[in-house]
């Protein structure tokens, strides 16, 4: 590995590490979390300046939602599934269907559009082990996800 590879630097600078017991996930060290939070706060401020409202959605969501949104058919093989009380659930691989649930719960007029949602959402994807590459391609990561419900002419 190149000395400037982020995985090498992460270990060398005591920022983070990865290990076989949690493949595709990151163990953030205290120094790394300081850097992580600085970057996150910078993005958060920029999002607020751009008119986004931050939301937080669940990590475990009924498979029904993923089927209704079409994500199960397209991405189901790359989603972590589990069962509880004989009901199928998935770890959230993306936030947009959950943002749609936040939107649906409000009573809004077309005049309120566009609405800008943002989330630093922990997502999980069942990436093949050969595709994993440090922080660049992982199974568990935080995604700064945005959703913009809007009218057609507002695209």
Automatic annotation (TrEMBL):
PROSITE patterns attached to this UniProt entry: AA_TRNA_LIGASE_II (PS50862)
A molecular-function term among this protein's GO annotations: threonine-tRNA ligase activity
EC id: 6.1.1.3
Catalysed reactions, semicolon-separated: tRNA(Thr) + L-threonine + ATP = L-threonyl-tRNA(Thr) + AMP + diphosphate + H(+)
GO-annotated cellular components: cytoplasm
Pfam families documented for this protein: tRNA-synt_2b
Record key words, sorted: Aminoacyl-tRNA synthetase, ATP-binding, Cytoplasm, Ligase, Nucleotide-binding, Protein biosynthesis
Domain Aminoacyl-transfer RNA synthetases class-II family profile residues, every copy: 5-145
SUPFAM superfamilies, A to Z: Class II aaRS and biotin synthetases
One BP term from GO: threonyl-tRNA aminoacylation
Family in the record: Belongs to the class-II aminoacyl-tRNA synthetase family.
Name recorded for this polypeptide: threonine--tRNA ligase
Lineage, opening ranks: Bacteria, Pseudomonadati, Pseudomonadota, Betaproteobacteria, Burkholderiales
